[in-house]
Amino acid sequence: MTTIKPARILAYFLVSIVFLAALMVIFLITSYGGKLIYPHPPQNDVGREPEISIDSESGIASMEISVLIYNVAGLPWPIGCGKKSRQTDANGERIPIACNRSAAVKKIGDMLGEMRKQNADPDIVLLQEAFLSVSAQIPERAGYPNWVAGPDRGDLGPTHSDRASEKFISQRRFWKGEKVGKLQSSGLVLASNFPIIELSNNPFNQWECAGFDCLANKGMLVVELEVPGLPDPLAVATTHFNARGASGVSNERALAAHNLQVDDANEFLENLDRDNIPFIWGGDLNMRHADDRIEYFVERSAGTLNEVSSYCVDPTTDCEVRINWESDTPWYDSQDLQGWVSGNRVSIEPIRVETVFDEALDGFMPSDHNGLLVYYRLSWLVDSE
Predict the structure, then answer these.
(1) Helix, strand and coil percent figures for the chain, each rounded to 5
(2) Which residues of the chain have pLDDT under 50?
């Protein structure tokens, strides 16, 4: 029978404590004065007015808008150092991301600004891991007239819900970051060419997280946008669910936290009671190659959420795919997903999907994720206005 020596246990404990202490110092230093300041909605500027076409025979009006989701890896130094993207070089090696994340975040804003100069800027941008205070420069550098942020580190929700088991709550561990408190914000940012008329933020329950993910105040950001010419407001949401391996705890515990956050998000959306208006969602759902997470997410959505890649991979649809998907189940191979729900009057259909920021700059990727850009057609019957 193999025994674990006390010295080894002590060494593991000390390494965990030192690692956690280092994280706390880094997060506290980088978060001081790092609150993202933005004008409280309504924000009424218009960066672009979509072109509306009307079919004379059917009386159906339609417009096209675009939505980008992008995890920018806005992590404090040196946490981002050494991370690698999933893009590979000519030798098949994964390309690293730049160690200076502040400079990389600014560059991302500049790249979005270049897209605007080419009249190719996404109408709506949903960012995750925008933890650094410099993240506020992304919408500014990109020229977006309206932007908001998700829950800040001090915007705390309840500690836990009845959904969390006693076992899950009792097994919270300090040296895994689960009893330290929130040292970072949610990392969520939304920028828009269209007026933001309402913002609803929902921090996940404080204790319904796992491992080092608990150091961030993860949650959900939901807005209502006034798209010029659209008969109803457009609801848009973004989120970032609990990680798996990076959380530093067992897959079982990370799964429990992920499921709790899925339930929290669903409950929040249901309470908003916006079923009658069109809805687009997207974010880093942390479900790549995780059957158990995907199954629970699909089950809890009760068939109401449509997912873009599973729609566009179907050759019978009119969705143009500009991504070299490696399988016929692209949703299984990505953390970053988008989807939609049509409203009572306005229907939504994806018409094109592509990736952006998927090439190295001076040997480094801008982030360890690619940007997922989706073009949607929004349609409605003119007589129903």
Answers:
(1) 30, 30, 45
(2) 12, 23-33, 384-385
